[in-house]
Every structure is written in C-alpha cells, then in structure tokens.
Amino acid sequence: MDARAQAEGERRVMRLLVEPLKARGLARPKGFTKVKDFDLMVEKTLCPKLAYMTALNLAALEEQIAANPAGAGRDQMPIPNEILRAAAGIQEPEPTASPLMLAVFAAPIGREAIANDWGPELLRYLKRHRKWPRDRVPTEIQREAAEARERLSFIQDREARGLGVVQRDLEWRAMREAAAVKCKAIAAQSAEVAQ
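Structure (tokenized):
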C-alpha cells in the first residue's frame, strides 16, 4: 500500500469505525484514562493497522463491536488487540509480512524452511502464535510439513492414475502452494530490509 492509499485508509477507519462508535456513546477502552492517550492509540495504532480494510468491512466491524461492547457495564470499546483480532476475522490483513516474519525468514531457520519445503507450515505457526519458533517447535513444524507432503503425494498419485480428487484437496494444495510463494517473497523482502 502506498502512502496515499494508507492515508485514505486511515481516514476511512476514523470515518466508518472510530467516529460511529464514539457517536453510539461507547467509552474509551479500559486502561485509556486520558483522552490524549486514546487519541494517540487511534492515530498511531488502530487507524494504520486497519487502513487495509474496505468500507463495507469497516462498517461490518463497527456493527459487530457496537453489538458486543466491552466493560462491566457493556459500554466500552474493546481494547485495540481485540478490535484488530475481530477485524482480521472479517477481512484478513494484506499479505505484508510482520517484522517477526521478516526476521524469522531472514534467519537460518527461515532459509532452511524454504529450502526443505516446510516454509508454509512455519508461516502458519508464525501467524497463529506470533512468537519465534524455539525448542521443539521446529521439529513439530517439520512433522506437519511431512504430513502435508504425504497429502500432496496422495493428490498427485490420484491425478496421475486418472482418479478424481475432491475439491477440498485441490483448494488445500493451491493454498499451500500460495503460502510457499509467500514465504519466498517474505525472504526476499527481509533481504531488502536488511540492506
């Protein structure tokens, strides 16, 4: 997203999410006792991180938050992390890599994952857990990748023998292939960032 699209997206978040929630009378989230702290969070965190969302999906998010307010009196906006989580459930963020993903795929573990075809499973782990894979985690990820390769082999075998393959398997294969391409793109992006 270029700077102009980002700025337009941030204005859209204010117009379609933040201002309507305030107009409904929802108070600042717990922990934001000062208006300036809340306004700073909206300006520096919420609007930039949700700028990717379409107008329709922002309206859906506003409706969902308004129907499920936080706080003991059910009169507060949720904390920013809960809003971001709800937003991702409505519209996945753009496929840009987080700093954690960039760092992992720039590290030896990321290069090994790409080289040995367990990058998609590593990427899924990073999206799900948002932490560096340590201890036994790489082994578990590699085991998941081995199962994925077995499933790919099964699909390819059925195709080679002229047998039908269920749509779900074809969609899964396409998603895994797209994830592998994304891993390579993240690795390339991390190399650019490092320079």
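DSSP finds nine helices and no strands in the chain. The mean pLDDT is 89.
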